[in-house]
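S1.2 Input.
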Amino acid sequence: MKELDENDRSSVALSECGCSEACSDSPDAEPISLDDADRLARMAAALADPIRVRIVAILASGRTCCALPETAPGSDPANEGVCICELTSILDMGQSKLSYHMAKLKEVELVREDRRGKWNYYSLDGSQVKKYLDQIRGLCGQGPSGC
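S1.3 Output.
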């Protein structure tokens, strides 16, 4: 049997590799692209910290403080975001530490930032959350229209 290099391994014919199923070069044989796998791994790494999971849960719940400035003109009131000061209060955390965690969530585009005057408001990016969930469902064999 011939020795295979890395480039040959993915396209070996049945008779050469001895597996019970035919090997395939078709794009359908790959359950996730390298780019999607990288993006999903970065998202998982961003959520690997319990503080960031709590931040996502808080953002999903929405604003709790009524004494802050109202929604900026032209913005969506249904997704007005949570002020950084609310997050520091709820999480009992300094703003610099919280900013570090917010940057990690913004890197993977799970969180959007909206600056209004001296306040920063954060909200979940629903389209990105849906995209990540669809990719996870796809890996589980449920596809985008699954449960």
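S1.4 Remarks. The CA atoms of residues 53 and 120 lie 19 Å apart.
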